[in-house]
Amino acid sequence: LEGLKDLAPIEYNLDNQSAFRSMVEALPEMDEAERALTLEHLRVRYEGEIAYVDDRIGALLDHAGALGLLDDALVVFWTDHGEQIFEHGTLGHDLEIYDEENRAVAAFWSPNLLPGEWSGATLHQDIWPTTLRLLELDVPAIWTGALVGDRDASRPLFALRSRGEDTVHAATLGDRKLMYWWTGERAFFHLDED
């Protein structure tokens, strides 16, 4: 939270859950400058949470390495979702299916694994077959996941989030994404630009 000291204070104690809820309710009524400052406080806190988790994972891996537990290990790390900080008018996750909420990160590490990067289409169900393959184990034929990096880039990805009548669908193909709400609202994105 070191970055907070560089920001002007806000009237809400974001360490307090009821004050946090009050801030969320007040955001739509704030003037532009107050809202921007409040959102910057939220961003610093969110980035602080990410840095804290990164530090803790690093300490755990350092300790495991010092004990010799990583000499013949595969470490798999993944996140389940992102977070929207009013990029599309709301705060949190599991509210919509914008990329800010639905993009995730996965990492595989082993002393025998060559470094690489993949930013193409991947689904959570791809974690398990990839893990088994890296462990040189057979992947059950009934599993629907693909190896990370092997998913057909020309295959569209579909998403659905449903809460009664508040349902939204999305289809993504390459850098294009179409979202459709059951209310009739639609949005189309060029993900490389929007």
Order of helix and strand elements from N to C terminus: HHEEEHEHEEEE
Main β-sheet: number of strands, strand sense, barrel status? Answer: 4 strands, antiparallel
Tell me the fraction of residues in β-strands, as a range. 15-25%
Distance from first to last alpha carbon: 29 Å
| Helix percentage range | 25-40%
Low-confidence stretches: none
Please describe what this structure looks like:
The chain is of the alpha+beta class and 194 residues long. Helix content is 29%, strand content 20%. The strands form 3 sheets. A 4-stranded antiparallel sheet has the order 5-6-7-8, with no helix packed on it. The chain has a two-stranded antiparallel sheet with strand order 1-4. A two-stranded antiparallel sheet has the order 2-3. β6 (166-173) and β7 form a beta hairpin. The model has no long low-confidence stretch (mean pLDDT 89).
